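Dear colleague,

Thank you for sharing your sequence with our group. We've completed the structure prediction you requested, and as agreed, I am returning the results in plain text so they can be pasted directly into your records. Please verify that the sequence below matches your submission; if there's any discrepancy, let me know and we will rerun it promptly.
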Amino acid sequence: MYEVEFRKIFEKWFKTKNFFMEDVKKFLLDSRDDYPCYYQDFTKEYYKDYYCSVFDASITYYDQGRPVFYLPMFIYKSSGENFILSTNGEFVYHPLFNKNLSKSYVKKISSRIIGFIFDFSKSFNINNVLFYGGNEIFGGWEESVVDVSISDNIRYKYYVDLKENILEIRSSLRESYKSLVNKSLNLFKFEVFDYCTDELIEEFREFHFQVSGKRTRSRQSWKIQQDQVNSSGGFIIKISDKSDAFIGFSLFLYSKFEGMYA
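Please find the predicted structure tokens below.
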């Protein structure tokens, strides 16, 4: 239903009907290590399940004998029945470009990608697209996004440099936070799991239900996260007090570039 129109518009902008090639995606993921978790298959599948995606709109492009870009996207319906285009349920992230491309070529292709997105957004009744700029290494993309934006917003992220040793990381914390960290070490026990059994993910899922008071997402979404942990893409922290009373869970995902609380 959606694919025919999507393919038609992609061909208009890129002169090929093949809007997604698995080997192009794989090459770009393997050749770069500076992309967020959102580009990984498990993370994308999780968000598609969480937002009840109606169509996987991910695109790749191959030109002049080389992979050019990979852009993970999907389309879902909001509560107001409007279609939303997104990489993570909120933003369309920057494409993952071949690192050997010139900035002028990235700028040229970026303008074409944005034109394509605007074109099929009209066909799918997508009224608004939120672009996320990303890193300065994708400068051609940021410039193209700014050129077509109705409004621009700056967001700041706080990163912890994990290449530093633990003492240097702790020295950068606020003094009030340091005392809380020290106190927690005496109050709680922390278990880290880089492999997740069926029993562990079910315990996590039931705890989430107890805390939230409702089932906020499908069992399949938990299975996707379990598989991501078991594919060396994340880990789980289980917390209990000194009497072994259960306190909580945390899930973290990571790529070669960054880790994030999930």
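Summary note from our side: The longest helix spans residues 103-123.

Kind regards,
the structure core
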